[in-house]
Prior knowledge:
Elements: H1 12-20, H2 28-38, E1 43-46, H3 53-65, E2 82-85, H4 89-102, E3 110-113, H5 119-128, E4 132-135, H6 137-145, E5 156-160, H7 162-165, H8 171-179, E6 186-191, H9 196-203, E7 210-213, E8 224-230, H10 236-247, E9 252-255, H11 259-271, E10 276-279, H12 285-296, E11 302-305, E12 320-323, H13 330-337, E13 347-353, H14 358-368, E14 374-376, H15 384-407, H16 416-422, H17 426-430
Parallel strand pairs: 1-6, 1-7, 2-4, 2-5, 3-4, 5-6, 8-13, 8-14, 9-11, 9-12, 10-11, 12-13
EC number: 3.6.4.13
Keywords: ATP-binding, Cytoplasm, Helicase, Hydrolase, Nucleotide-binding
Region (Disordered): 382-489
Amino acid sequence: MTNSFSNLHLAEPLAKAISEMGYASMTPIQAQAIPVVLTGKDVMGAAQTGTGKTAAFSLPLLQRMMVHENSSASPARHPVRALVLLPTRELADQVAQQIAQFAKHTKLRSTVVFGGMDMKPQTLELKKGVEILVATPGRLLDHIEAKNAVLNQVEYVVLDEADRMLDIGFLPDLQRILSFLPKKRTTLLFSATFSPEIKRLAGSYLQDPITIEVARPNETASTVEQRFYAASDDDKRRVLTKVLRDRQIRQAFVFVNSKLGCSRLARTLEREGLRAAALHGDKSQDERLKALEAFKQGEVDLLVCTDVAARGLDIKDVPAVFNFDVPFNAEDYVHRIGRTGRAGASGLAVTLVSHADARHVSDIEKLIKKKIDVENFGLDEQPQRERFNDGNRERREREAGREREGSSASREPRGRDRRARDDEPQDRRERYRPAPVSRDPFFDKPYEPKAAEPAAWDANAKPAPTRGAGSSKPRRKVAALFKPSPASE
């Protein structure tokens, strides 16, 4: 077999780990990228999500770093030689776990650093020395500024999900990180999508790169059934629950465009009896990891998330993905539906389209180069919530009507009765007027300042003259502490 891992002649510890993980043959991206990376050349690889891009760069890097393997306890003997940068915390943690599995029979050390967690445990790991450092850009810069990470001996740089890494939001941090690295290095870029603009930006970081495209750029997996249903914003939740019920779907990703909408939809689905959890950027790292773990263990059926989970997360046997909101960026559509139908399995991708999403659907058509047919989804005329409340509403209306009839006698007459009351004699109507409120005339008098009163200890003193009578201020009398003796007088 030409695409067998045994043909790569990897080191025995790596071959043993691959065998234990159940890997027998390489995927197309692995078969083309691994031999090139083993030669030390820069690579720009494009492949569909779920095709094994992580193994395509981690295995050849580990093979080339086996010459640096040593059992020394000194951190100086374990400098950072490979740097893997990823856009999200979840993806960084996932890649770090996979690299650790590949290297578990070697003496090469690896660790991961990302935001949302305490820096102290990460600092302790970095101080011990690691050969492979997996990181997100923001937290790596924090460690660089704190002098916890020294990158002057890095030989390999990997930018996974490179289109997002080179996006406008990541570009300044990426430029700062690359300024700390040696000029002579091997740079690898792997992603599911590459736009022409991204290719031009990536060209400034790579030296004579070899482009590997095992599938047409931005192509979706053929194993994923893509359906687009027309639904208003008010009907989307009903369509979602009906598809889940009709297709008997056990688990699914539900993607939305905003953090607030993610939390609200998760709470609403929970109130309807579905086991749902929210995953978005405002969640703490501990909450995000717990939600992912609960989804992996089957404790959560629906993982409602923003595009933070659309990049590279590898959760096996997820049968469906729902785009509750059509993504603003057409490339995010490819990443979203790539969460299902992984490793050759079949999957379902359902996108709910409202009238305001026409332009976004057109952008997706241009990207994937396929005609999209938006179908009408058959729903009952009345929403389920209204049918369920019909009996209660009628009962409440009958009770309210009886209350209105019972209290009509005590209410003020209206219409003709009110006009008749206006025709009553004046003296009769005056009897119903409220009595006037008594007022104290003291509070109606204007303010009048009082003349200065004599001191309490001098009963014979005259009142002090008013200001303005003389040019000097009159002297104020002060009480004596001791009464003068007769001799002093």
